């Protein structure tokens, strides 16, 4: 029963997060602004939940809190780089590229935990790399996106940060109360987004009311619902099943990008998208 609830929780989380790329694009805000405000506006709802958990289950260990702080910094890097990629390669394709985490997380598990690499990894990784090249528009005369090459670079760097974030979020949530570390993830991400946004990615501390409204929607769908559910549910599932369920995020983003934003990837970019998703799915279900 607990596993079934976790599956539905992860499914809900993936679909909730899938809308964030489109909503951020509609908001028209810079990466620093979007990353800072989406985390900050989630805290008033998350902090009471953390205090309730603390009274009920006690405080997490110092190691869990340190892991959460590092995960928060990586999450900020993921948000900043990915938001930059949205304007360059599109909401849908940028989200597909970021989900190369299905390849990168096993590499982290091998490097850190000495988890065995399977034959499927070495078969699927080149297929997904070919998908990246197609998605970047290297085979097109007029690929979709304002700057698909740099968009791909930023999305791949975001994938590295995203992979580290997921690895630490799942690892830190095993055998520990999940909400308190997650709130620390959001606090660390808020501070890191504030610092990096002011330095590089553009930060507006007084965005217009319409933009703030869109970012509040992202905070609700992603930070309060989506990623909190991932923090709670992912430790209860195998890494393989969790990875498969998170693939609903890029699929939803591609569909919403086409319907809401009118994004029309080129045929080669769609081929690249399909290669990445097919390789990621095969890799996830084959990791045993």
Automatic annotation (TrEMBL):
GO CC annotations, alphabetized: membrane
Family matches, as Pfam families: EamA
Keywords: Membrane, Transmembrane, Transmembrane helix
InterPro entries: EamA_dom (IPR000620), EmrE-like (IPR037185)
SUPFAM superfamilies associated with the record: Multidrug resistance efflux transporter EmrE
All copies of domain EamA, residue ranges: 8-135, 150-281
Sequence intervals crossing the membrane: 35-52, 64-83, 89-112, 121-139, 151-169, 181-202, 214-234, 241-261, 267-285
UniProt xrefs under Gene3D superfamilies: 1.10.3730.20
UniProt similarity note: Belongs to the EamA transporter family.
PANTHER family: ACYL-MALONYL CONDENSING ENZYME-RELATED
Name listed for the protein in its UniProt record: Threonine/homoserine efflux transporter RhtA
Organism listed in the record: Amycolatopsis sacchari
């Amino acid at each position: 029963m607990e596993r079934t609830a976790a599956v539905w929780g992860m499914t809900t989380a993936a679909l909730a997060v899938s809308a964030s790329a489109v909503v951020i694009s509609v908001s028209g805000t810079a990466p620093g602004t979007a990353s800072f405000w989406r985390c900050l506006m989630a805290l008033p709802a998350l902090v009471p939940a953390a205090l309730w958990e603390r009274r009920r289950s006690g405080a997490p260990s110092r190691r869990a809190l340190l892991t959460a702080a590092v995960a928060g910094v990586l999450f900020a890097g993921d948000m900043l780089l990915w938001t930059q990629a949205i304007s360059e390669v599109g909401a849908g394709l940028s989200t597909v590229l970021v989900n190369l985490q299905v390849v990168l997380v096993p590499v982290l598990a091998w490097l850190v935990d000495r988890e065995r690499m399977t034959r499927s990894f070495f078969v699927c990784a080149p297929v997904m790399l070919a998908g990246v090249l197609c998605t970047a528009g290297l085979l097109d005369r007029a690929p979709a996106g304002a700057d698909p090459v740099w968009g791909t670079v930023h999305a791949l760097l975001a994938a590295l940060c995203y992979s580290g974030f997921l690895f630490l979020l799942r690892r830190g949530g095993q055998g520990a109360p999940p909400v308190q570390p997650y709130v620390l993830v959001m606090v660390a991400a808020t501070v890191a987004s504030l610092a990096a946004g002011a330095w590089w990615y553009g930060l507006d501390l007084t965005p217009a009311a319409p933009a703030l409204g869109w970012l509040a929607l992202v905070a609700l769908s992603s930070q309060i619902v989506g990623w909190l559910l991932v923090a709670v549910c992912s430790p209860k599932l195998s890494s393989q099943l969790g990875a498969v369920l998170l693939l609903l995020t890029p699929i939803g983003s591609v569909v919403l990008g086409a319907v809401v934003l009118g994004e029309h990837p080129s045929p080669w970019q769609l081929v690249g998208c399909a290669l990445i998703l097919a390789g990621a799915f095969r890799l996830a279900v084959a990791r045993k």
